[in-house]
Amino acid sequence: MAKKLLLVGGGHSHALVLKHWRRHPLAAVDLTLISDVSQTPYSGMLPGHVAGFYSHAESHIDLPRLCASAGVNFGEDKAIAIDPERNLLTTQKRGQWRFDYLSLDIGSTPFIDDIVGAEYGIPAKPVPQFLAAWQALLQNIDQHRPEKFTLAIAGGGAGGVELAFNVQARLAKFFPAIELDVQIWQRGATLLSRHSAQGRKLIEKLLAKRNITVLLNRPVTTIEREFSPDDNQLTCYKLESNDHWRSVNAVFLVTQASPAPWLAQSGLSLDSRGFISVKPTLQSYSHPHIFAAGDVATMVDEPRPKAGVFAVRQGKPLFDNLCRFGLGKDLKPFIPQSQYLSLLGTGDGKAIALWGPWASYCQCWWRLKDYIDRQFMEQF
């Protein structure tokens, strides 16, 4: 009798598992992918999509089509609970799914629990909701054509900085007559604290050149609606941080990553932030028949930032170990690289390259980033 394997979530690691499964399926395993979206975004292209370089189709993977090509079942549903002892997954639509073993790649969302009025902000994830809000915002600006538009981005990590560059470029291109004020509100005393001093200096210089305001030691703590929209004006909000208030037209939330709340009741071994603790084999420390990859997983022995590059690198090792587990073979450890090249698109046909202490900014890095991202998407 075939074993039942569930892939929960359509993240980068699982997309790569499906690609390899298409070439090397296991007859002894019945594989099903469950995802709350049918079109899963590729994080490497999302800033470029915001800036207008890529269409929705170019920056998203068609999961039902990928599953069909791999002979894999697809269910569009959202996971809300798991019982690893009884091997049951609970979802919103179908209810319960039985499995013999399972892999989670459900990503993360910005942590907003400490922001009063967070419902007035626009979280960068889940991506489909963010992109819908972004398109609505563009239409709203186009309709009202204000003299000035102020956008705040809460979060000064790589995601917040790259989003700031690409949002500013798109708005400046589409609405040249509007005075733009793009702001980054950073909780800490520095931007991109994981990167080198040279890299931070380069980025700060570019932000200043693009008139993107950086507010350090300014965590967004409160969002209040100042007044409702009418026929002549855009919605306006007030942001508060350390008793400082500013009025803005929109707030993007790109704060620290947080896991799905239901994991806290899963019985799985979690790290201090609530992410799934996994071994180098990508197995749960508490339940070896549960695997996890991407943002939702924390490699306890080899901790790394929550970045798409690691989810991509985990894809093939995850596939190999899922196959080995299904066949009763020994699993192999995955050791991620300690250094990696970060390429941040700046929305102007150029990109910033960051590698260890080294940093550079030019058109050639955008060409490299575009090539890498298109090559990745061509696999699917």
Automatic annotation (TrEMBL):
Residues 4-315 form the FAD/NAD(P)-binding domain. Belongs to the NADH dehydrogenase family. The keyword Oxidoreductase applies. PROSITE patterns: RCC1_2. This is FAD-dependent oxidoreductase. Its cofactor is FAD. Pfam families: Pyr_redox_2. PANTHER family: APOPTOSIS-INDUCING FACTOR 1 (PTHR42913), SLR1591 PROTEIN (PTHR42913:SF9). Keywords: FAD, Flavoprotein, Oxidoreductase. InterPro entries: FAD/NAD-bd_sf, FAD/NAD-binding_dom, NADH-Q_oxidoreductase, Pyridine_nucleo_diS_OxRdtase_N, Reg_chr_condens.
